[in-house]
Amino acid sequence: AQKITQTQPGMFVQEKEAVTLDCTYDTSDPSYGLFWYKQPSSGEMIFLIYQGSYDQQNATEGRYSLNFQKARKSANLVISASQLGDSAMYFCAMREVSNDYKLSFGAGTTVTVRA
Amino acid sequence: DVKVTQSSRYLVKRTGEKVFLECVQDMDHENMFWYRQDPGLGLRLIYFSYDVKMKEKGDIPEGYSVSREKKERFSLILESASTNQTSMYLCASSAGQGLNTEAFFGQGTRLTVV
C-alpha cells in the first residue's frame, strides 16, 4: 500500500500567488516525521520543511508552511508569494519508527510558476 | 558546506554490462541510501546501509547490489544492466537515528541502458 500520496501530478501558479501542494500519508505509528523536498531541474533534492507528529504547531520556514491535519493524515505544503525560482518538482516524505526510520516518498508534484 | 557527490551525472551503458555508481559523502554520516526515481513513482529505496560493511535491502533490490567498504563511500552495482534499469539514481546520507534527521542528497545520476 502507498504510504505517501500526492494526487496532483502538475500545477501552474501565477507569480506572487500562493500555492498548496497536497500530501496524505498512511501510518499506524504514533510517532513519525513528515518532510517536504524540492527538486529543481538540475536534479538535487533540497530539504524544505519538517513536521513531527507530536508538534503542536504547524511548521513554517520562510515562505514555506506545512498545513498539518493529523486526524486527516494530511500534510499539505503551502508556498506563499510564488517566485519563478519555485518552479520544480516537490516531494512529500515520511519517516516511521516501524520502517526503521527510512524515508518513504510520494510520487511528486511538478509546480510551474508563470510570470 | 555538506556534500554528497555522485561520480557521474549521466551514464550510457549497454545491456548486460556491469555498472558501478559511486557515492561519497563528507559529513561522517553513518547512514547511506540508494534510490531510483521514475516519473509517477517518486523515489523508491533500493538498498541502504547503517554502518560500514553493513547493507540492507530496500523496496526494490532485485538486479542490484551494494558495497560499503568505507564509511564515506557507498557503491551501487548493477550486475547485468537491463533496459528497465534506465532511470535516475539518487544517493543520500544522514546521521544517526531520529525522526527529524535530514537526509542529504547527491545531484543524481541519469543512467540510460541501451
Plain-language structure description:
The complex is a heterodimer of chains A (115) and B (114). In chain A, strands 2, 5, 6, 10, 11 and 12 form a 6-stranded mixed beta sheet that branches. In chain A, strands 3-9-8-7 form a 4-stranded antiparallel beta sheet, with no helix packed on it. Chain A is mainly β. The termini of chain A are far apart. The radius of gyration of chain A is 14 Å and the shape is globular. Helix content of chain A is 0%, strand content 51%. In chain A, strand 10 (88-96) and strand 11 form a beta hairpin. In chain B, a hairpin with a 2-residue loop joins strand 7 and strand 8 (73-78). Chain B contains no helices and 11 strands. In chain B, 34% of the residues are buried. By secondary structure, chain B is mostly beta strands. In chain B, strands 2, 4, 5, 6, 9, 10 and 11 form a 7-stranded mixed beta sheet that branches. Chain B has a 4-stranded antiparallel beta sheet with strand order 1-3-8-7, with no helix packed on it. Chain A binds chain B through residues 4, 6, 9, 31-33, 35, 37, 42-45, 47, 50, 52-53, 91, 93, 95, 97, 100-108, and chain B through 9, 33, 35, 40-45, 48, 56, 58, 88, 90, 92, 97-108, 110.
